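In response to the reviewer comment on reproducibility (Comment 2.3), we provide here a single inverse folding case reported in full, input and output, so that an independent group could reproduce the run without further information from us. The structure tokens appear first.
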């Protein structure tokens, strides 16, 4: 993936308030009988059931929505995975969220544009839940931006195409991600970009109550998530994912969060004003007309005017930068 123009990158992490995180202790008991619990699916590499006791933690990869992600190894096969451990909670809302996250992971397991799900396990000792996933060995787009520099248009087209294919798959199955941002888009050594972290995702069985859609990272929220009545009526989620993708691409190109001045310290009120009332970010000179128009199609304030994932996959910006044409 071609990367250009090194810049200082603003660490912009303003998730909505969540319960305070505590040190996670997740005992992974060795199976003592044939009836011991295991991860609910099989390992892709070996075809064998993976027992929690076979998992060795190697290092902490990061912290996501309500949990800690580890790099782990299957001690029998030496296969490497990512393991997200979500702390136990007696709160009914948190328990439902964990259940929804694992259900969405399992529903999206067949997409090559979504981080692959290998199963989940609830510890009988602590009640913590572990989700075993594909390990993406090149990290996140956020990490690449900080370490390699900003992305050129050809690289952005590759990112957009992969993410849109993932969103098209999810949206066709009534799944909205609700937290698309550089930190939740992962890359492997094959230069594949995949969607990860479904901690605040939603199955769209019915229209969302706007007040219940207020989750995720507020910096990447669309205007209708703050004020659904003013921007397109009921919040449906799909268009909000497209808005977040547009901001993500701009951030990867500009080297800083596009709704604020470079180096500006963000706060919740400033971000809400910029999202709902601010002008569309101005792109620097030299940007192609195709990329400029692509971003405009993603960042229309009215949610009903935003292009959908299938529409954006046919946009001239992607067609122009398609290596297969």
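Designed residues, in position order:
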């Amino acid at each position: 993936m071609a990367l250009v123009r090194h810049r200082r990158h603003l660490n912009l992490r303003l998730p909505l308030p969540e319960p305070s995180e505590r040190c996670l202790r997740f005992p992974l008991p060795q199976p003592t009988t044939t009836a011991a619990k295991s991860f609910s699916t099989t390992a892709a590499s070996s075809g064998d059931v993976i027992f929690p006791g076979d998992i060795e933690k190697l290092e902490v990869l990061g912290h996501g929505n309500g949990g800690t992600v580890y790099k782990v190894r299957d001690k029998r096969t030496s296969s490497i995975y990512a393991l997200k451990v979500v702390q136990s909670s007696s709160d009914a809302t948190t328990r439902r969220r964990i259940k929804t996250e694992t259900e969405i992971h399992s529903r999206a397991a067949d997409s090559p544009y979504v981080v692959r799900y290998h199963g989940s396990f609830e510890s009988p000792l602590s009640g913590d839940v572990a989700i075993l996933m594909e390990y993406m060995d090149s990290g996140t787009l956020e990490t690449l931006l900080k370490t390699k520099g900003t992305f050129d248009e050809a690289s952005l087209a590759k990112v957009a195409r992969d993410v849109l294919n993932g969103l098209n798959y999810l949206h066709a199955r009534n799944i909205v991600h609700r937290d698309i941002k550089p930190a939740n888009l992962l890359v492997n050594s094959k230069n594949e970009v995949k969607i990860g972290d479904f901690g605040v995702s939603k199955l769209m069985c019915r229209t969302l109550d706007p007040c219940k859609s207020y989750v995720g990272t507020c910096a990447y929220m669309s205007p209708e998530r703050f004020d659904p009545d003013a921007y397109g009526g009921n919040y449906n989620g799909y268009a909000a994912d497209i808005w977040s993708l547009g901001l993500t691409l701009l951030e990867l190109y500009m080297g800083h969060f596009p709704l604020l001045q470079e180096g500006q310290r963000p706060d919740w009120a400033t971000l809400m004003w910029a999202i709902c009332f601010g002008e569309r970010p101005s792109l620097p000179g030299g940007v192609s007309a195709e990329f400029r128009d692509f971003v405009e199609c993603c960042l229309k304030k009215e949610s009903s005017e935003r292009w959908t994932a299938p529409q954006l996959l046919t946009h001239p910006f992607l067609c122009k930068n398609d290596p297969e044409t």
